[in-house]
Amino acid sequence: MSTTTTTGAPVNAPWEELVTSALLGTDRRPPPTGSGPADGPAALLDAAALHTVRRRAALLPATGAAVPEAAPPDPRPPLPAAARRRLAQLLADRSAPSGSGRRGTAPDLTELIPQWLASAGARGFRAPADLLPALLDAARARTDLRPHALAFAGPRGLWLATLNPEWKFALRASTNRSRLPSTEDQEAVVRLWEEGLFAERVALLGAVRAQDPAAARALLATTWSTERAEDRLMFLDSLRTGLSSDDETFLEEALSDRSRNVRSTAAELLSALPDSALARRMAARATSCVNPDRTGGEEAIAVEAPHECDAAMQRDGVAPVPPSGRGERSWWLGQLVEATPLTVWRERFGGRAAQKVVALPVADDWGAELHAAWCRAAVRQRDPEWARALLGAPSTPPASGPGTASLAERSKLLAILPTAERADWVAGFIAAHGLSEAFQLLGVCAVPWAEPLGRSVVDALDIARDAGSYPWSFSGVMGLAERCLDPAEADRLEVLTTTPDEPEGASPGAGGYWSEAFRRLVSTLRLRAAMDAELAQAA
Amino acid sequence: MLLSHGGEPSGAADPVARWTVEQVLALAPDDASRKAGSRLGAAGPWSEAGHGGTGTVWGLCKGSGSKPYRTVVDTTGPAYKCSCPSRKFPCKHALGLLLLWASDGSALREGEAPEWAGEWLEGRRRRAAERAAAPAAGEGPAAGLADPEAARRRADRRAERITGGAQELEQRLTDLLRGGLAAADRSGYALWEETAARMVDAQAPGLAGRVRELGAIPASGPGWPVRLLEECALLHLLDSAWLGLDRLPEPLAATVRTRVGLTSPAEGPAVRDRWLVLAQYDTQDGKIVTRRIWLHGEESGRTALLLSFGAAGRSPGQALPVGVTIDAEVTPYAGGGRLRGELGQQFGAPIASASPPPGGTTGDAVTAYGRALLDDPWLDSWPATLRDVIPVPSGDGWQLVGAADGSALPIAPSGLSRPGLWKLVALSGGGPVTVFGECGHRGFDPLAAWCAEASDDSAGATVALV
């Protein structure tokens, strides 16, 4: 660069003066360039240009800020190359704008992300560093992805989340076990318990409880009376894991807690302990209301609902005020039966098994109330025998079933049954009643579906096609089938992808749409098989 | 695809570089085709899909009609052919096929192209070979040089118009400074738009572009008067340089001509090298999309910039996957430090590459920028590779801090607003990485990164940050 300017102005005028002059205008504030007023603006620009280029050419690095702590190492092995490419595609597709209209025959990649993450996590792979931002973004947008996405993202994912406020959720959601002190280190445990953030304390309590339940209770007792009501509720809730009769004393005391929510949670936990004093008290109350009735020819159940909700009942967690639209007495009865150990009823009704007890007629229309309460008790006490009895045979029409017609309650009861039995029951239900009510029940079945269940779903879809309806009436089940059918079924389903002749009275064009839907099902299953194979490769 | 391997052993053991999903998606002309292409990027609708092992890919895609569409892609162009009626380019089938190729190793079989694809590929190959042979035969009176006298007269007329434009611009700048920049805030964008339009009339697109950028400065936040004065001053430097062009040494004169907007063809000598593709990114300027591709020559040590342009609805013609190495000739353009080049003949298919260009310290990077300003004072930035730097949060922004000496460059605002920043941070994990980017007076804009940590799965692989 030349050091003189085209107008011959001096070039070392201070920059601030040039800026002031430029801002106000050279007419008002002639630049300190020494030339005549006519040359003012050009001289100013010359000097400014020289200054600008000189400043840019003379740039030097600054002194760096302190380097933050590096991400903790992640010892898991890296993904195989093919699986890495697949993850990149799944995450890239997620950010594409969602289209509308027909789904066509191509698999919906977004729906496969949770499965991919679960599978990669189960195989213990480490997430590729450069895909962590997309992974965290995906988990931010979809809470259902979070547990698997964060586990897969690992310590580097958490480290990254501390740097970007948009990923704060990851710090909240994660129990962050890596930062917990060893449960052996008594001093560190006590310090974290007294000074830690709430989430850290919950995690700590869980960790200590897993090692030594008594120590966890002792830790909790040290600060119990000074905790806030919401926190007491959360801490109490964490006793749910690994609940045992050793917890009874602590829970009994919590029945006198200042907070109503804490009291009712304590009562709920105690009622799940069949040998607890509370369970015995509730059993005494419930058995005084529900009795064998031998007045008729056959044995039946007579119900005399409680007439009052006294202070002792309230202390044991019975809510005195029913929701609007429900009678007080039936509300109290429901709560008593729900909290009563189910084993009580066998004794009460002549040693009958659960199935026989459930089958007994109930006098005066109390049947629905009583059975619904038993359903809740079976779920709370995780009693498969009672769940089985209350579900009845899958072929029985829901309206005349033993326990409940509610699909939500049925799926809760199903969840207590062993995996294989669950799948068989739902398969039987679908075979008898078709798909229209099966969606919620399918949701509690283990993935991939057991063979009989998968076959009954596919058969039902095939029957629906033959009946001439449109596939989108079954889009929910179809979507579930894409995600849950065993990928090994793909070849067997290939035969369904042909477009059949339109049967008499079928909806116009339905055959083509069904063929498209089945093609998508088959290609999704193939894709899932490919994804599994990619993850199974050696890295 | 050219069959000439220039005497090198053919069929090298290096694997043919496969594109990544991100690279394929970057080819889409718009969001709708990106989405539609993604839907087709799985095995479902495809049959007879295969690849030739040298960057050619083909497949039949089931559409709504009875006959499937025939899709062929030559990734070295890239060039696309599809029997679908779409006007989008590349169409969703080409994108879907490339995605399938990128993400699913088992979906495409390697083999001979079927007849329908082979014809088109063969035709491309033949034409490329003819083009390569053409310059020798075409040295004579080519079409553009038919009448050198007329061409000279046209160039003179254009230079006169630019001179008129430069004089007018000079007048407007001095008027602005006479009245004060404070008034520029009030007069708003329209003043600059109108001036830019006058420069377009004067056939000086380079001046027009700079003028248009001035219009955005008053809204660019605190400190805008200083930035406006700097840019006005550099614009003044450019138009007065044009007006005094005959007194400038030739390399600087060439820079000024390029900056004003007079393009001259790339002039040799061509540099043949193994070029690593460092970065590819698009910027939108009005209806025109400009694509920048950065290359680094393994032997020559040169860094080259390929520019290509696309009108609305079309991707710029050139596309190279980041992280591969191509054996090719690059012919530099005059001016601007001879950074810009034109991609010539390519030899063989791109291969996957692992090692970054040799890098330097933060000090080396700003020094290189400072030196480049000697040749082109209008440069905003200069390419640089930083070795062993750590991204560190600093105030509202980020720095790249040298692991060895603790010296730091701020990350430029353009780099801060990009999602690639987080890729860089994730890749670093608080440890040193090698970063390629553009280093200038606004800071360092990271475009690609390499993690040296051998245990990492991305070890050595180029991670694109744009």
Question: Which terms would index this structure?
Answer:
heterodimer, A: 539 residues, mainly alpha, disordered N terminus, B: 466 residues, alpha+beta, 5-stranded mixed β-sheet, 37% helix, globular
Can you walk through the features of this model?
The complex is a heterodimer of chains A (about 550) and B (about 475). Chain A has about 550 residues and is mostly helical. Chain A has helices at about 15-25, 40-55, 80-95, 115-120, 130-140, 145-160, 170-175, 185-195, 200-210, 215-225, 230-235, 250-255, 260-270, 275-290, 310-315, 330-340, 345-350, 355-360, 365-380, 385-390, 405-415, 420-435, 440, 450-465, 475-485, 490-495, 510-535, and strands at about 60-65, 290-295, 300-305. In chain A, a hairpin with a 6-residue loop joins strand 2 and strand 3. The longest helix of chain A is centred in the C-terminal third of the chain and has 27 residues, at about 510-535. By secondary structure, chain B is an alpha+beta fold. In chain B, helix 7 packs antiparallel against helix 8. In chain B, about 35% of the residues lie in helices and about 25% in strands. Chain B has helices spanning about 20-25, 30-40, 90-105, 115-135, 150-180, 180-200, 205-215, 225-245, 250-260, 360-375, 415, 420-430; strands at about 45-50, 55-60, 70-75, 80, 110, 270-285, 290-295, 305-310, 325-330, 340-350, 380-395, 395-400, 405-410, 435-440, 445-450, 465. The longest helix of chain B has about 30 residues, at about 150-180. In chain B, a hairpin with a 2-residue loop joins strand 11 (about 380-395) and strand 12 (about 395-400). Classes of the chains: A mainly alpha (about 550), B alpha+beta (about 475). Strand 1 (about 60-65) of chain A pairs antiparallel with strand 13 (about 405-410) of chain B.
